[in-house]
Amino acid sequence: MAFEWITGSTPQFWKNYIALFDDEKQDAKKRFVVFEIEASTIEKKGTVMISISGIGVVDDGIAVGDFMHALVSGNDAEPAAQITKNEGEAVVEAEAMIQFLNFIKDATLVSNNINTDIEVINAALKRLDLGRLKNDFMDIGVLYKRWKGINDDSQYSLTELCDALKTEQPDRNTSWASAYTMALTFLKLKTKLKI
């Protein structure tokens, strides 16, 4: 992998990811990946990832065993709002991006206030001299507003959405726990909006 970058050729994992979007065939079962990024802003580096977690959703449920989590090391970041202790062994940002792309494949990405998360990922990909994400994506807050018929620019925290939808809120002090809570919230909206 590193040798490919040194020689200037495109890494195989990126070629594999891009190839998923060359074919227009649709899977019988649409896969969604609900994900959460914990990030922090570092002077001169901008926003960097501390951890990233994703959970697969197929049909009307969380796909058992379809998850990923990466704790990112070597970026000099301190957790902005969450606690990352006891989340497993840390990997460098490049490895976290490889794991994430291999996990998401061509799934529709789902998160709350997703534009920020997509830009954090795209910035990480740019640091690796790669292109931008190709996946379709959905914002849980936007889905909530569609369901409620709200036509303004308001944004909602995950806690506010969970309260409004009466979603269980387990301890959310890690990106993994927040991704799981978001997946539960997404499933409720998915049913209500018949997605």
Gist?
The protein is an alpha/beta fold.
Global structural class: alpha/beta
* Count of helix runs: 7
Rounded to an integer, what's the Rg over CA atoms?
Answer: 17 Å
Q: Spans of 5+ residues with little confidence (pLDDT < 50)?
A: 77-86
Outline: globular
Series of H and E elements: HHEEEEHEHEHHH
Q: Strand-residue fraction? A: 15-25%
Main β-sheet: number of strands, strand sense, barrel status? 6 strands, mixed
Global mean pLDDT: 82
Please report the distance between the alpha carbons of the first and last residues: 38 Å
How are strands sequenced across the largest beta sheet?
Answer: 4-3-2-1-5-6
Describe, in plain words, how this protein is organized in 3D.
With 195 residues, the chain is α/β, with parallel strands linked by helices. Helices cover 38% and strands 25% of the residues. It has helices at residues 2-6, 12-19, 93-104, 114-127, 140-148, 158-165, 175-193; strands spanning 31-42, 46-58, 61-73, 90-92, 108-111, 137-139. It has a six-stranded mixed beta sheet with strand order 4-3-2-1-5-6, sandwiched between helices. Strand 1 (31-42) and strand 2 form a beta hairpin. Mean pLDDT is 82; it is low at 77-86.
